[in-house]
Amino acid sequence: MQTYFEYASLEENPRYSCVNNTMSYEEMAARHEKHPIIGGIFIVAGIFFEICYILSLSVIWSKEFVQMSCFKLMFCLGVVDCLCIVLSNFLSGFFYIVGFEYCMAPHMSFIMGALVNGFFNTCCMLCLFLVFNRLVDVWKPQFGEMLFKGGRTWIFVFLAVAYGIFFAIIPPPCLFNADYGTVIYHPLIPGKENLEYTSIYQTVANLITGTSICLCYVLIYVIHSIRMRGVDAKSQSRVQRKILIQAVCVCFFTFTTATIWGSLIFIPPYPFMMHLGQLSWELMHGMPAIVYLFLNKTIQRQAFRKVSDCLKMFNLI
Description:
- The chain is globular.
- It has a two-stranded antiparallel ribbon with strand order 1-2.
- Helix content is about 75%, strand content about 0%.
- By secondary structure, it is an all-alpha fold.
- Keywords: Membrane, Transmembrane, Transmembrane helix.
- Pfam families: 7TM_GPCR_Srt.
- InterPro entries: 7TM_GPCR_serpentine_rcpt_Srt.
């Protein structure tokens, strides 16, 4: 976004200006293969994710839960994930359908790319703070109480938001291109294909956050395994398996998305890898809602009770 401050307008930036592009909107769209079925699936999946998140967040924000620091972080992560789903599923699905490239709508694409950077990195940092919160709660509850007690949790939320704002303003945006099926740094403007468009900030951030999240979950599992030594083998196996499944579901797609985006500075962005990255990006924001609603029994019972009460209110059951 700093290009608007540095050059006053996008058209004045020689790296992102499309003023010399003579092709019409229809001609640019005709250059790309359209994928209406895939785009439609992404949009439908986004609707499903949003519904799951709305149900989950309605429970998480209740007075019973939001008093706990982990639920404060879960709620904030859910809000940002819901915003990300608009970009990763709805807008990307539409772009799949029409065969979109940067110069078809440069201002919208540029702003969307900056928002992708901001929301994605905010989610990564909130996820890291959440798993760190779980780690200290398992390892040293007194230390966790000191860090996250009361309103101190909102300090971590503020840091995550500030971190996301930095990435929305400073590094180059991620821009959608139908040929790659996801967002990439290069706008692929005709005549500027040989220019370099990379972000060392994002590469370093992806490596740090992805590695840190996985490390925290490994430590949680190891510490919990040690604590469960006195429990009978059957109960220990069941509890450990439940923890491991939820940990993998929440952090795996954050790790794969960060890894794929981070690898772009080292290897060419092959279309298959980018399509895989797009799917991973969508699941990164949608999977926590699935975990909350279908693997967390406490949230599940409360959410389904709210749905049942709502249906009864309208005499639908």
